[in-house]
Amino acid sequence: MRLSLFSPALVAALVGYGSTIALVLSAAAAVGATVAQTASWVFAICLAKAVGSAFLSITQRVPVVLAWSTPGAALIAATSGITMAEAVVAFVLAGALVALTGALRPLGRLVALIPDGVASGMLAGVLLPFCLKGSAAAQALPALVFPMIAVFLLVRLKNPALAVLAALATGLSLAFTFGGSSLPALALPLPTLTFIAPSFRPDVLIGLGVPLYLVTMASQNLPGFATLRAAGYEPPVRAALATTGVLSAISGLFGAHTISMAAITAAICLGEDTHPDRAQRWKVGVAYAGFWLLLGLAGPLILTILTALPPPLMTALVALALLGPLMGALTGAFTPPATRFAATITLATTASGVAAFGIGAAFWGLLAGLAVYALEKTMKP
Question: Of 69, 227, 280, 306, which has the fewest Cβ atoms less than 10 A away?
């Protein structure tokens, strides 16, 4: 294990954790997770990422870097009227569907039939409301949020991957020095996994489980495979889907949402500086797994610090973290001319947040977009 393998692995792990941990906490709050359940969520998903990254990298001899589903966390955070026990069933279903996609070719082909523009429109509709909340957060706490935004914009000019992490560091510094937040008593208790007995609700399976599966596949797994392919590796598609799906289903019982292939953080680990021999570069996945295990063990300490921050600052951080994914989703939604109107309908319906029959807006947005797309395709000569 060369020293050069550890540096990109550490940066990738810190970027992945620091840039979206606030969104995971928002998702946990949206489903009414207790403090213990939230800590279990974070620990379980860190363990799943560590085990999956190490297993796939070692067995496939390919540098596999896994991530938690950021759009999936945003989707969960946008829900209402769902308990943690009910959400667990959706998490398990989403993981099972990912695994089945790798095992059953017809299911994979069925997902592939969804137009990219419509899928991106659903993702954009999920992300947009969170980004819009950033302005209100800046108005509520300008002394802390505006400097954080300034740092984000400046760092992004040089290194977009580190921009959110730099904003988080700025927010922490300002909050605990000038923002009136008190640094809590710091301790390092060992994290524990809390089993959450599932509570079955069909509308939650349809309204949260299915969209969670779709956004994880379309917005995380497919770009992740493309990133590996661009780096000159043949992605182990079936093995990766089976591994991440099974691990997601298991960790879902302890409160964690889905894990998936990484794209941005994976790109950090795939450069020539990691290892001059491409055949040996798979070892970075093992180093990356080790850092995620350490982050999981440090979870109680990190969560104690983050929960002491003012809510507007956390809201602003989530908004900044989702600007990049929103930009990518909007680009994907409106680039294909044939699906632009259908994507617009999908985005508008999903962003409305309106649920019907207990089923969330993301499902209805996808359904509306597919209906409009099918109508246009049928009626146009």
Answer: 280
Q: Minimal CA–CA distance to 32: which of 81, 75, 78, 73? A: 81
Of 38, 108, 135, 31, nearest to 75 by C-alpha is: 31
Q: What tokens does 215 get?
A: 């956004």
Write the pLDDT tens digit of every residue in 82-132: 999 999 999 999 999 999 998 887 777 777 778 888 888 888 888 899 899
Going by the DSSP 8-state scheme, the letter that residue 1 receives in this structure is -
Helix (H) or strand (E) holding 146: helix 142-158
Q: Is 145 exposed, middle or buried (0-12, 13-18, 19+ CB in 10 A)?
A: buried
Residues 6+ apart with CB under 8 A from 37: 28, 84, 194, 196, 255
Q: Give helix then strand counts, H and E, for the chain.
A: 18, 2
Please give the structure tokens belonging to residue 216: 């994880």
For strands 66-68 and 259-261, give the pairing: antiparallel
From CA 52, how far away is CA 57, in angstroms rounded?
A: 8
Whole-prediction pTM value?
Answer: 0.84
Residues found in the chain: 381
Tokens at 182, concatenated: 């008190």
Q: So where are the chain's domains?
A: 3-379
Per-10-residue mean pLDDT of the chain, 381 residues long, equals 78 85 93 94 96 96 92 90 95 95 79 82 87 92 93 90 86 83 74 93 91 88 82 87 96 96 81 80 92 92 85 88 86 90 93 79 88 88 67
219: amino acid identity, one letter = S
Dihedral angle of Cα 320, 209, 94, 230, to the nearest 10 degrees = -40
What Cα–Cα distance (Å) separates residue 150 from each residue in 136, 163, 164, 171, 320?
Answer: 16, 10, 11, 11, 11
Going by C-alpha positions, the residue among 254, 294, 258 that lies closest to residue 44 is: 254
Of 322, 273, 258, 266, give the one whose Cα is nearest residue 68.
258
